Amino acid sequence: YDIVLGINHGAKTIEIDLDYAHHCLTDKQAGRILGHLQSNIVAILNSEIPTLISPQDEQDVWAWNSTVPDTANICVHDLISETVLRQPDAPAVCSWDGDFTYAKLDHLATRLANGLVKLGVGRGDIVPICFEKSKWTPVVMLAVMKTGAASVTMDTSQPEERL
Question: Residues of the chain with pLDDT > 70: what percent?
Answer without folding.
Answer: 100
